[in-house]
Write a structure and sequence with these properties.
Blueprint: E1 3-8, H1 17-31, E2 35-40, H2 54-57, H3 69-78, E3 81-87, H4 94-102, E4 107-114, E5 117-122, E6 130-136, H5 146-159, E7 162-169, H6 179-199, H7 204-211, H8 217-224
Parallel strand pairs: 1-2, 1-3, 3-6, 6-7
Antiparallel strand pairs: 4-5
Helix pairs in contact: 1-6, 6-7
Length: about 230
């Protein structure tokens, strides 16, 4: 059975718009036979990494900070797929940033050069083979995800695992206001979860359905007062 650990970094947790995309995605994974555990960073005590790399040099694979990451480390070592879910802040909510920094413990400090970049890989006792991203933002276009998307992709590359793709939902504040298109987005998120477990990847067509505009640009400008300025 495929083991999935999902981490929702939204401060609004299950009431946030990130959950509106994440939940059907995870439901699809469960429906495809995966075992899924979901954690909310807001409910966890995750302290900042102190950057001393004691977990690499003095106590390999062990962090001296006694907090809820100790529970997550155990769960993550047993997971096949890691799902990171977050709204776009500047660039990430604080709790999510703390968690991602603390993932350094799972990396083997034996570094190597690949395609002109220094990379590592997960330790031998870490089963994660794929990382997927679920992200929402309030602004209109998908370009607003560039930094968060790069963070997730670089984590996968640095750990030498597959980046399985991203469910990106721009202008997420419209979810629920446009009922028919919202339903299509939710259905696509659920289908993406099924595809990832059954086929090992998500189709570009399905991911585009998750990101589809919920209203036209003209309707957006009329309803929400957007102003388009020249360069």
């Amino acid at each position: 059975m495929t083991e999935v650990v999902a981490i929702n970094g939204s401060p609004r947790m299950e009431k946030g718009r990130t959950a509106m995309i994440l939940d059907p995605f995870l439901d699809g994974m469960k429906g495809a036979g995966a075992s899924v555990e979901l954690f909310y960073t807001k409910r966890l005590d995750i302290r900042p990494c102190t950057g001393e790399l004691i977990c690499w040099e003095e106590t390999p694979g062990k962090c001296y900070i006694s907090d809820d990451m100790q529970l997550l480390y155990h769960k993550l070592r047993e997971a096949d797929i890691l799902v990171l879910a977050t709204p776009v802040y500047m660039p990430l909510p604080g709790e999510m940033q703390n968690l991602m920094n603390r993932l350094v413990l799972l990396l083997d400090p034996i570094l190597e050069m690949r395609a002109g970049r220094t990379r590592a890989r997960f330790r031998e006792d870490v089963r994660i083979s794929k990382i997927a991203l679920v992200s929402t933002c309030g602004w209109w276009e998908k370009g607003n995800f560039e930094v968060v998307l790069q963070i997730a992709e670089e984590l996968a590359r640095n750990a030498s695992v597959d980046f399985a793709g991203a469910l990106l939902r721009p202008h997420a504040y419209l979810l629920g206001e446009v009922e028919e298109k919202t339903r299509r987005v939710m259905d696509a998120a659920r289908q993406a979860g099924i595809q990832l477990v059954k086929e090992g990847k998500m189709s570009e067509e399905t991911l585009e359905m998750v990101s589809q505009p919920l209203v036209s640009e003209e309707e957006r400008n009329r309803r929400y007062g957007y102003i388009t300025r020249g360069q």
